[in-house]
Amino acid sequence: MDKLLIQGGFPLSGEVSISGAKNAALPILCASLLSAEALHITNLPHLNDVATMLRLIGQMGVEVTMDGNSGLILDSRGVNSPTASYDMVKTMRASILVLGPLLARCGEAKVSLPGGCAIGARPVDQHIKGLQAMGAEIRVENGYILAKASRLKGARIVTDMVTVTGTENLMMAAVLAEGETVIENAACEPEVVDLANCLISMGARISGAGTGSIRVQGVERLHGATHAVMPDRIETGTYLCAAAVTRGNIRLLNTSVGYLDSVVQKLREAGCDVAAEQGAITLKAPQRLKAVSIRTEPYPAFPTDMQAQFMAINCVAEGSAVIRETIFENRFMHAVELIRLGADIKIDANNALVTGVPHLDGATVMATDLRASASLVIAGLVAQGETLIERIYHLDRGYERIEEKLTRLGANVRRVR
User: In the β-sheet with 205-207, what is the strand arrangement from edge to edge?
Assistant: First the structure.
């Protein structure tokens, strides 16, 4: 199993390109199931989660062709197996996103209850309730969701909580439903908007994406299209934090501050000089960061996927900060590993008090989930001596060629087997 060996103490400098967003690419791959015509996706990140999703839809009959660049052509004419088996779904929660498209296109679906990072329960009941409101017959047996509907009917759906994958699943199901569907309390994340833009380019009629109320007028069929995946805002934020903690000066290409207002605001509070350019972001870090308190909330507030990275930079910042996690109930597992590096962190339920220390010391640590892995990389970059991060397969799920990009910015990082 691969590990990451980091020699800390090198400030990041230079420029690097940000990849396409994992959390946009996965639902867009599932959108290919909605049409019998080809969907051409560009700016697709090369990640383990993307490879898993491609294998999953490939088993259903989708033909995948490389376009010779960073994109793929997905031909779903031959979809003949609307089943997502446990073996494919257990490693990635986003696999649930095939449920809505399969039900809308094929009239039936058999999808295993999903797995993924162990950061909380994240139930799929909102997906099921929404599809039932659209007329689907659904039951759960032996760990599988079994769904049937001759044709889904438009409905007004009010979710009990804001759910990104739930919004995406219901939106994809609604594009082929009969009549109008209104999704209230919808997720507003940019990745939801990117999926909606892709569906619109395929002929869907969607309005309100990016707001709490999405309206979908169902159509008979969708056609082929070409769509470029948006830049990954969480990868962008992660590299900004890495530069901030190492007193670096970097320029990130193929990205935008437009997706990162809350993160950029906190980096500026910490003392960083962050500037927006056309299609790029620059950051210059101070000699020592100031501790900043954060509270995670649904978009456009501070994202839960950046919580671990800010905990890492607070570990060596001046002063103390409180981090409150309101999205997932089990997302402080990285704190124990950061303490192994010498951090001063006290956990009380969903609050963490982080007091900055003069320096961290390298040690062997273990990644517990995707964003926890990123926090350990950031801590390792600033720690004295060597840090060895085990179980980095989590990193490969969400960060494309992270050791290559960090090396390009001047870090001393290498993958060991």
Answer: 156-158, 180-184, 213-217, 205-207
Query: Cα 393–235–396 angle (5° rounding)?
Result: 15
- Tell me what the mean pLDDT of segment 379-407 comes to: 95
Pick the catalytic residue from 117, 198, 272, 315.
117
* pTM, rounded to two decimals: 0.95
117 has a pLDDT exceeding 70 = no
Residue 320 — φ and ψ, nearest 5°?
-125, 155
Question: Is residue 121 very low, low, confident or very high in pLDDT (cuts 50, 70, 90)?
Answer: very low
- Give the type of residue at 106: C
Distance between CA atoms of residues 163 and 208, nearest Å: 16
**pLDDT score recorded for residue 116:** 45
**Residues in CB range of 237: below 8 A, 6 or more apart:** 260, 263, 303, 306, 309
- 117 counts as catalytic: yes
> d(Cα 297, Cα 352) in Å, to the nearest integer?
16
User: Which amino acid, 181?
Assistant: T
Residue type, 400: E
Mean pLDDT, the chain, as a whole number? Answer: 94
